[in-house]
Amino acid sequence: MSYLEIKNLQKKYTANGPLIVNNMNLSIEKGEFIVFLGPSGCGKTTTIRMISGLEEITGGDITIDGESIVNKLPRERGVSMIFQSYAVWPHMTVFDNIAYPLKLQKLPKDEIKQRVEKAAQATEIQGLLKRYPAQMSGGQRQRVAVSRAIVVEPKLFLMDEPLSNLDAKLRVTMRTELKRIHTQQGSTSIFVTHDQSEAMSMADRIVVMYKGKIEQIGTPMEVYQDSATRFVAEFIGTPPTNFFDASIVKEGKELYAKGEGFCYKVPASLHQSLADYVGKEVDMGIRPEYIDIAPQKKEGEGYLCDAEIDFIEPQGSHSILITGIGTNQNVKIHTVEYMDMKPGTKVSCYVKNEMVMFFDRETTKRIK
Ligand SMILES: Nc1ncnc2c1ncn2[C@@H]1O[C@H](COP(=O)(O)OP(=O)(O)OP(=O)(O)O)[C@@H](O)[C@H]1O
Ligand SMILES: [Mg+2]
Which of 4, 163, 262, 279 could form a disulfide with 28 if both were Cys (CB 3.0 to 4.6 A apart)? Predict the structure, then answer.
């Protein structure tokens, strides 16, 4: 049995309304850093509010250490939550802000002082305990909110987009801080974001959500390299995966994925799984870094098509080349080799290392 188990969890806000969380199942081990990732409205906040007890569940169960928590009050669950708008109380000093949940528990004064100092040390604001929030930067206020959440030494630490109010640079710094605190405290954490790069850089495992359902659960590398659905392939990665409308065609012993403007010989490793799709349409996905280009025409292994580069987006360490292939006029190619390529250059495009993904049109699931 895992530490936290979510079983067939469901949520409707109104009796006849839609299922906002639709039969969710998830097991989390002690000490894991889990990220809920998905677009706006997919049910991330609703789910963690149900775990914290701020929202009632419609169906299913949630257990911690084997014990159901759904009938417990929020404060009996051993869970601490940080919200998107990091509410720190302006009329209280930093010390009093952090001490507040411990005062509610009516702990002895000495113990409160000791624990506040320890929490402030973890977030490196021990020198600011006498200040008021108005005298601090956004990042420092965020640390106060983090300190107040960890001071209760929660079994489970829930964070709902805690970094979204910070500027880009501070977000990146605070990411690392939160991860460090998580490790130091030995907590189990669930962190919500719709920022895929935040998710990739922080998570032990990412739970990709879409329309109230889990699309995939996996390590950052798994969801990236081995996307389970078209949605995951599209949502994760910048720029996102390039998609092409393809028909699977059999010629002799070979299978080809053909579409307007391209023809790709399917690698033998995919013959078996694509056998049922001969004569059918599928979605073909190739990530920008898995399209190789060559300035002179040469067909061969992995050949996809010839194309003309329309735009270049230099990124410093690499460039993004933009070209049109058939019906997809916004194909992006990540290149380190041809960073200075001029618009109008004619190239041949290849799929690198057979890194191609095919998706079923109806189920949107990966064919593999
Ligand atoms: N109190 C409520 N009553 C009715 N519907 C609600 C309520 N709260 C949220 N919803 C709806 O439930 C769905 C999921 O909302 P939720 O806040 O969980 O999304 P989210 O994934 O956290 O999105 P975001 O990234 O924008 O924060 C949305 O369609 C939302 O409109
Ligand atoms: Mg939300």
Answer: 4
